[in-house]
Amino acid sequence: MVAYNACAGGNGGVTFENAEPNTKKFHFAVQPGWYHTRLLLQFTDDRENYVGMGARTVFRPALDLEFLLPSGNDKYALVLRPSYYKYASTGTKLVRDRDVTVTVDYSAIDVPLGFRYYSFINPNLKAFGTASLGFVFLSGGEVRQQPQQPRSLRTLLASSNTSGARFLLSYTLY
Question: Are 62 and 83 in contact (CB under 8 A)?
Fold first, then answer.
C-alpha cells in the first residue's frame, strides 16, 4: 500500500492513521443560577386542607457533571447536577374557622442523576433535553404552625425535566 501511494522518485510513502476525534467525554461546569420554586403543604392530620406557600425565586449554585456515552455519536450523556438552595415562606391555613400562620424555612441539596439527549443544530450549536430523578436532602428544615411544635421535613424523591442549548461547549442556556 505504501509503495503504491509513493511519489515517483520519492524516497518514502504517505501513511494515514485514523486519529481519535478530539472530543472530551467528560464535561464539568459550575453553574450559578436562579431557581423558581413553589411549595404546597399537606398535613397528615388534615388531608383536605392544603397550604400554598407561594412561588419564590432563589439563588441556586450548581455543578453540571456530564459523561458522554460512547455510542450514539455524542448524542447521549449521563448527567449529575447537584445544587443548593434555601427556601423560606409563610402561608395561612384555615383551622376551625380561623386563619393559622404556617412558616417554612429550609435549605436543600438537590442531587439528580439524569439522561441527556443532544440534537445538533450546526457544528457549534446543539439543543438538549434532560430527564432526571434524584433525592432532595433537606437541612435544618421545619414547618412552624402556631401554636403547635415545629414539624421537621424529610428527604424526598424528585424528578425534573430541563431543556437548553449549548454553544461551543462553553456556553449553556437552560
Answer: yes
Instruction: Residue count of the chain, please give it.
Output: 174
Yes or no: say if 61 and 86 are a contact pair by the CB < 8 Å rule. Answer: no
Which pTM does this prediction carry? 0.70
* Closest-CA residue to 134 (of 163, 108, 160): 160
Cell digits for 83? 445544587
Which one-letter DSSP state was computed for residue 97? T
What SS3 state is found at 122? strand
- Encode pLDDT of 8-52 as tens digits: 655 555 555 655 555 678 988 888 888 888 777 776 666 566 677
- Residue 31: helix, strand or coil by DSSP? coil
Task: For residue 173, count other CB atoms closer than 10 A to its CB.
Answer: 9
Calpha distance 151→167 (Å, rounded): 45
Select from 79, 87, 78 the least CA-distant residue to 109.
87
User: Which residue has 384555615 as its cell numbers?
Assistant: 94
Residue 2: φ, ψ to 5°: -65, -40
